[in-house]
Amino acid sequence: MVVAANLGYPRMGEHRELKKLVESYWEGKLQDTELVKEAAQLRVHHWKVQADSGIQSIPSNDFSFYDQILDHILLFGVIPPRYQEVVVSEKEYATQVQGLRTYFAMGRGFQTSTAATAASESTTDTAFGSAQAITQKIDVSSLEMKKWFDTNYHYMVPEFADSQTFQLSANPKPVVEYLEAKAAGFETRPVLVGPLTFLLLGKSGNQAKPYTNRVDSLVHLEGLLPHYIELVNQLGKAGVTSIQFDEPILCYDLIKENEEIRVRLQEALKKIYESIHTAQPSIAIHITTYFGEIRENFQLLKSLPINSLHIDCVRCSEQEINTIVNELPSNWSLSLGLIDGRNIWKSDYKKKLQIISSVLAKIAKDRLIIAPSCSLLHSPSSLRSEQGFVKPEVLDWLAFAAEKLHEIKFLANATVAGFDLSLPAHKVFADEKLQAAYTANQTSIEARSVSKLIHNDAVKTRIAAITPEMFHRTSPYPKRAAAQRAKLAIPELFPTTTIGSFPQTREVRSARLQMKSGKITAEQYDQFIKKEIQEWITFQEECDLDILVHGEFERTDMVEYFGELLEGFIFTKNGWVQSYGSRCVKPPVIFGDVSRANPMTTYWSKYAQSLTKKPMKGMLTGPVTILQWSFVRDDQPRSDTCYQIALAIRDEVLDLEREGISVIQVDEAAIREGLPLRISDWDQYLKWAIDSFLLASTGVRDETQIHSHMCYSDFNDIFTSIQRMDTDVLTIENSKSDLKLLRAFEKYGYQSEIGPGLYDIHSPRIPTVQEMVDRLEQIVKYLNINQVWGNPDCGCKTRHAKETKAALINVVKAAKLCREKYSKKQ
Fold first, then answer.
1. Domain that holds residue 497
2. Is 762 a residue of the active site?
3. NCBIfam families in the record, alphabetically (predicted)?
């Protein structure tokens, strides 16, 4: 039997039910027992959706309150010592649900009212509501957060101490949720992050003795593996017959021609999966890879006692698929990830059946599993809400998670029934229902390919007219820097700014909804936004920031806002996907050629500048980030689409300059995120990605200062490309990374100015002035003091106003203290 399988389902819910539950809990409006109960009902609903769609292998334990890696951190007791006070306070707190307080503290940080008062005037617990207040002083930052491979999802990084011990939690979550599904009438396949991926995505050692290779984390395997085996034993006793072990780490370059590493990895994988198989030989083991090709790492797997291997056929070349099919052990099944789990376009059944047909030439049907390329976590939930919102012609081209389940089932049924692609399109299937579904699919695919909505000759002509000069600033950085300092009149040492956005309060969101629903006029809405801008400019002047921002109150999202004003984009009503924690984004859909009809930001930037004599920073999102954080058309190279976006942003940059804006930030938070997993594929991507940024940003005069922002990026690997961006000021995430990012700037040299983030905006805790002074003093060990700016890690959109103001006041105080100290030394 060909199995229709799913690897994971969007956990937030069709209407972001989980987001609302979790945030209510954080605000103290929902008790932990209520949170757990409501979440269980959401899980049951998702299992039912999958079962009703005909999915035979339904995942469990793909749900998470915050992040699946954080789940495993708590599951195996990898709790850093700094959270011990939280653990103790939680044990003293009378509740039926233990672990949530510690769990969210690791995800978001935790600061009690006593600690918050010491940092500012705040009097509210900033990780849990007043109903769960703790009297003692506790103040801990969150774990480090990184991008999940090359997606816009973020995971919490495990911290493994030199003497790390592990302990399986009581009532392990995978067992609880499997039994929960079983009680509801659903047989499921529990999903676990594989031991290899869990260890290699973590960070090990310490500052004095950092590990030099991710494989060094394997020293902890001896301590961790017995607890994985204990978990598998408990799952076996609960009745589990198969387990999905996610090992996407196998899509990275791990071996790199290094025989010692190859041997270590081979021995580790053999030990892991032989031990699990020995402990529960009746449980089928499914290893799941995704986001890329496994290539040479396939050789590490071939001798393992597993039952199936999943490959991402959306990201795999035909050659890669053929190699795996030809060398697949005869006792393994092959899971074909045919349906794109990361994009929203309807699958072309003909192309998918062609892959199946080539595989069937070597592998029997009963060894095939049909699945999405990866977990559907990265897709919106359902098209149901888009009826009447998205124009019908485009809606017919789309498939969200619920629709992708039906595509999986169709391909599984088609494989069982048989098909003949050599016959005319209307005779491929003998089964009438399958033929009707196939015909409808091909009609939709053909309609999209010839639609006049997609192509714009003027855009194509402009792309063809790009010249080499359009990728370069007029003068080198030293000459520009002198002109900019003279014009801007900002401090020579430690100037301060923010990354751009200020809190999108309940009032801001409410005003936007009222305007969209017609309850207030556009003019009334504009007056409301102007009032918000005025208030925050007043605050910035009072706390004495040097470069101000208008706060972006008119923007829903840094990508969505621009997409709404550019041609070639459409938007969904409910196409939400999880980014991190409770943070959801609604990516635009790039379906056609991109162009800018009118200025997009000049009105608000010009208005904000009129309110202050201090420099006002124009805020734009860069072309690569707009591309990465959108659902992108798949009918032309991504580079072509990125150049189109770059020209539109270039027009906006020049318009801002003409309107008197002397500082312009072109955010490229996603350049590192878009890097292919394999090093051999980097050069091609980095060439067009950096060129796109340059095309967007280099048309200005010397005295106009160009900023960019990048977050959660390992710069060492791509430092020459970062230098080639030729920004005047680069702001980066730094507060969670133990200053390791700055080593790259020290090692390779960096002449422009840089703002390493002084505090983590993803946490509600308020950092003290001394904490930021200490961080600045650490930073100047790696950078020249004339290069360093003071700023947060990222935009403050998701924070509350009170904590944002308190933190920014402390940023300015810290910068002034360091300015005074270091100016005396010069």
1. 490-552+733-826
2. yes
3. met_syn_B12ind (TIGR01371), PRK05222.1 (NF003556)
